[in-house]
Design goal:
With 526 residues, this protein is mostly helical. It contains 21 helices and 2 strands. The chain has a two-stranded antiparallel ribbon. It is globular and about 70 Å long.
């Protein structure tokens, strides 16, 4: 063999890297490392600069999505099979990256004036590190990258939840979140190992091909692997009965982190679930289709029933209601994924499954905008009412009319009522996927749950516009603030105001042209 031939063979083993394709998660990770190092040298009075750097880094990561909008890039491909890649920047990946990076940016705005009570450098590093993992996951096209991205997104979140040192609720929330997530990861890794043993590959498209022809002696192993992998992701998506960690975690976490988990954490879990079901396990639709349909019905029902039981005067009842609402919304998000396992005539098959996934993505975009907006208003109220009870919102319109109008709009969007047209549009879209797939019973369960949810969403909306009660509260009552502190808190933090304004404008714009959401979220995974 000549030297030239040897060099050519060696060159064929070297993978090229498309740096532009991997720019969104890479940039977030690089800025996170810069903040971690800078925190060692920046004096305490200049720590807010780290927050500005984090916001700029997330904005820059979002900007790198623009040159990728054609959705035709891939990298880290096999040298023997150039079409089998570990990272693909297709339209699905770009839409989810827009969602998670945008959600992280809004979380950063919510957090900008609250890190004075938290270690600033650690907070911003952990937030960007988690956002980097969340942005990597939807582009992952092999199980190893998928698991690594999921853990990179999850591990910093544990620390963020428990970052309020000395706070018992925060420590308990972090521990419960950590234990449940570690259990989910262990179950998922066991399932992944079974799938690898049955197929001999980790790439999703290759798994799909080889699962069509699994040797008889490995059939049970493959089915167990598929089932265990789904159980692992069910924990991540807060699907019932794996949802028990949600309310306590949201209450114990700093409020912006609760917002982050409700949107970005959920997007990460559903992205992974979509990839393993529709891309890797289409031949096992008879296993995961009915299972996800049952999980969807159970999740939305338990979430709405628990939300109904929240007492207006209970401490942190507003946050708990948003937590249980997020569980119910997870049930709605599961419906199109379950429908992807069924043919258009109600028979089995994944024909049209990728189109139905667009309904989940569209619903996730709507939910991200309005739920972050609701948490932003909750953060505003928490500045004067730290216990964040539902009763604390009574008469909000009299003191903060714009915030009350925004909160009312967000709640109506979540309920699916006008003028929240985008919420209604998203629910109708999801409902139609169940009907088209022949899942009439699931469509009926969803319709009943939507009606049940109207009660607590409308009840909270009505509270915003009632006359404020005159209550004489002693200065030492838990959850009250002194006159000086209240006066200071009544001046909205600029970043918090920007977050509320951005989500409100986005919600109104999408309600004016809801068809754009489905068109934008119309993704293909094949």
């Amino acid at each position: 063999m000549t030297v030239a031939a040897e060099n050519a063979g060696a060159a064929g083993l070297v993978q090229s890297i498309d740096w532009l394709a991997i720019a969104p998660p890479t940039l977030a990770a690089v800025v996170a490392l810069i903040i971690l190092v800078a925190d060692l040298f920046v004096p305490e009075h200049r720590k807010p600069l780290l927050g500005g750097l984090a916001i700029a880094g997330l904005a820059a990561a979002l900007a790198t999505l623009l040159p990728l909008r054609s959705g035709d890039r891939a990298t880290f491909c096999l040298t023997t099979s150039p079409d089998v890649c570990s990272y693909t920047a297709d339209h699905f990946a770009l839409v989810i990256q827009l969602l998670v990076l945008g959600g992280a940016l809004l979380t950063a705005l919510l957090s900008y004036h609250d890190t004075r009570r938290l270690p600033a450098g650690e907070f911003w590093f952990l937030l960007l590190a988690s956002a980097a993992g969340a942005a990597l996951l939807p582009a992952a096209r092999d199980l190893a990258t998928l698991v690594v991205a999921l853990e990179v997104a999850s591990l910093p979140a544990f620390a963020l939840v428990g970052l309020r040192r000395g706070d018992r609720l925060s420590s308990e929330a972090a521990l419960k979140f950590f234990l449940s997530s570690v259990t989910a990861t262990a179950v998922m890794l066991l399932g992944v190992s079974f799938v690898y043993a049955a197929t001999g590959t980790l790439h999703l498209t290759e798994i799909a091909t080889r699962l069509d022809d699994v040797p008889g002696q490995l059939g049970t192993l493959a089915e167990a692997g598929v089932a265990l992998t789904l159980v692992g992701f069910a924990f991540k998506t807060a699907a019932a009965p794996f949802h028990f960690w949600v309310p306590d975690t949201y209450v114990g976490a700093p409020l912006p982190i609760a917002a982050y988990l409700s949107v970005v954490g959920k997007a990460v879990g559903f992205s992974g679930l979509i990839l393993v079901t529709v891309v890797a396990f289409p031949s096992y639709h008879a296993v995961w289709g009915p299972a996800l349909a049952v999980l969807a019905a159970l999740t939305m029902t338990l979430g709405n029933v628990a939300a109904l039981r929240q007492s207006a005067t209970r401490a942190w009842s507003a946050v708990r209601l948003l937590a249980w609402s997020s569980v119910a919304q997870a049930g709605y998000l599961l419906v199109p994924i379950a429908a992807a396992a069924y043919g258009g005539d109600g028979g089995s098959g994944t024909d049209g499954g990728a189109d139905r996934i667009g309904s989940t993505v569209a619903y996730a975009l709507m939910y991200a905008v309005v739920n972050l907006g609701a948490f932003a208003v909750a953060a505003l109220v928490a500045r004067t009412k730290p216990l964040n009870r539902l009763s604390d919102y009574q008469g909000l319109y009299a003191h903060r009319p714009l915030a009350a109008l925004a909160m009312g709009f967000f709640l109506l969007c979540l309920a699916g009522l006008p003028p929240g047209i985008i919420g209604l549009f998203a629910k109708v879209t999801v409902f139609s996927t169940a009907v088209d797939a022949g899942l009439g019973w699931l469509a009926v369960v969803m319709a009943l749950n939507v009606v049940v949810a109207l009660y607590y969403y409308l009840q909270w909306t009505a509270v915003l516009f009632r006359s404020p009660e005159e209550r004489a509260e002693s200065a030492d009552t838990p959850g009250t603030v002194t006159a000086d502190a209240e006066s200071a808190a009544l001046t909205p933090a600029p970043a918090l105001t920007v977050a509320i304004a951005l989500t409100a404008v986005a919600g109104v714009a999408l309600s004016g042209a809801p068809q754009l959401v489905l068109r934008f979220a119309g993704v293909s995974l094949f």
